[in-house]
Amino acid sequence: MTRVPAVRPEQVPDGVPVLDVREDDEWAAGHVEGALHVPLAELPARLAEVPGDRDVLVVCRSGGRSAQAVAWLNAQGLSTVNLSGGMHAWEAAGRPMVAEGDHEPYVG
């Protein structure tokens, strides 16, 4: 796999746009508040939804799918960076998450 730009959770500044490419059930369990949810398989059809005027952090569960998304998005002319370790690393670093419904957020 081609190396893509990546950052660790503790390097991510507050307010950076986040694109979450996980599936619906993973998203519902826990995600970054304010993130844009576009499952990886839908990304080509929904490319116009991804901000093109600033850097975007791309996340998945462990970093593999988001790395694929970053490689593809950057080839389309966008400026994106992968979250190293994905949402598992985000959660382990104590970064804030929200969930759909009444349960506590978690990474499934």
From TrEMBL:
Signal peptide: none annotated. InterPro entries: GlpE_sulfurtransferase, Rhodanese-like_dom, Rhodanese-like_dom_sf. Residues 12-99 form the Rhodanese domain. Transmembrane segments: none annotated. It holds the Pfam family Rhodanese. SUPFAM superfamilies: Rhodanese/Cell cycle control phosphatase. SMART domains: RHOD (SM00450). This is Rhodanese-like domain-containing protein. The lineage of its organism: Bacteria, Bacillati, Actinomycetota, Actinomycetes, Motilibacterales.
